[in-house]
Amino acid sequence: MQSSAASIGNIGNNIPDLMTAAQQVGYGDAKDALQLKSDVTVPKELKASQVLVRNHAVSINAIDWKLLNGNMSIIKTYAFPHIPGMDCSGIVVNVGSSVGRLKVGDAVYGNMGYGNAFAEYVRADESLFALKPVNLSFAEAAAVPLAGETAYEALFQQREITRDSKVFICGGPTGVGLFGIQLAKAVGAHVACTSSLRNMDTIKKLGYNVTENISEVMKPNNDDLLVIDYTKYNFGEILHHQNYDVVFDCVGGQEQWESAQQILKPGGRFITIVGDDPHSNLTVKNIVTMGAGVINRKFWSLVGQEPSYIFHILKHDYRHLDDMRVNYIETGKMKPIIDHVYDFYNVKELHEMYDRSKSGKAQGKMVAQIIKD
Ligand SMILES: NC(=O)c1ccc[n+]([C@@H]2O[C@H](COP(=O)([O-])OP(=O)(O)OC[C@H]3O[C@@H](n4cnc5c(N)ncnc54)[C@H](OP(=O)(O)O)[C@@H]3O)[C@@H](O)[C@H]2O)c1
Predict the structure, then answer these.
(1) Domain Enoyl reductase (ER) spans what residues (predicted)?
(2) Consecutive 10-residue runs of the chain (373 residues): their mean pLDDT?
(3) CA 166 from chain center: how many Å?
(4) Which of 111, 200, 263, 265 is deepest in the core (most CB within 10 A)?
């Protein structure tokens, strides 16, 4: 692994003019649209509220390959070349004049929004970063922001998850689902989820007493995590009338909503981060169809016919990252599960990272390491 830029020892000094960064040069698959360049200008000029961070690691999320493919160009277009990526972790090497919360030398993690993370240096508003959990490596910390915060917001923002709440997670082994399970368990909820048999080991890495024994459904134990093999069973039939408070859908497809209605209690909530069509491009037609579906379901939940239907989209707030760090990660209640760590300086590995994310077969988070922990 090599580095063309300053190392941790050079904090604040000797920030180079040029850096290595991934560059999106068009829309398409990673091998066609993603390059690695070593002569990219370091964004040294800071506005008052900005920080410059020397990245140690970055991680990929589904939205990254969707943006690379152009699936989301209706809401976000880029002038090329463009540095992609959102999640990263590193050390603050410079701060703007009004930055007060973070200082040079702080280890941080954050989500850059729609790009610019996959580089040795990133410049961003201070509000996008929070202190890195002390018990995580940079590689682990980079795996948290987008997926962790999505689960945190979806489950906690309306404070509906409390001790003894019953929470079902569609897609326990998804990047978001793995954080969702841990957050729900951390507050004492009874948690069940779907998984393929292939992913039982992924789920077991969380450390709970994993049970597939469906006969135990009637006596949920707070120490257990009930896992239903979705390739064999329909969770709506298995958990029919089990009065779940929340179904958190990290998979998508109309069947999740249909099964959820069978298990939610009156007034329960279905919170999806995907919607009915997990594979669609974001087109005007799809947005209109999706909007009409959400309005229709909200109407029926208001007149008392169906559970609440909530389509959650990540909002992002560094205070969520702070709260996750202090109350969940540093207390050992939440950790990232890593599928694979790639070498940032090998463009083929970056392509593989995108392809693995796009495959929908990842078993945890994929990270690209810039500086070894
Ligand atoms: N709205 C938002 O703000 C927001 C934020 C973040 C992510 N998302 C969306 O959330 C979705 C999940 O993203 P992610 O990155 O967390 O997923 P991911 O890590 O790519 O999920 C892959 C894993 O899910 C498993 N899986 C697939 N279908 C499943 C099912 N029906 N039940 C259980 N496990 C299943 C796969 O294994 P098997 O195939 O073996 O089951 C694989 O291990 C994506 O569509 C993403 O775009 C939305």
Answers:
(1) 29-368
(2) 43 85 97 98 97 98 94 81 98 97 98 95 98 98 98 86 93 98 95 96 96 70 88 96 95 96 94 82 60 65 75 94 98 98 98 97 98 93
(3) 22
(4) 111
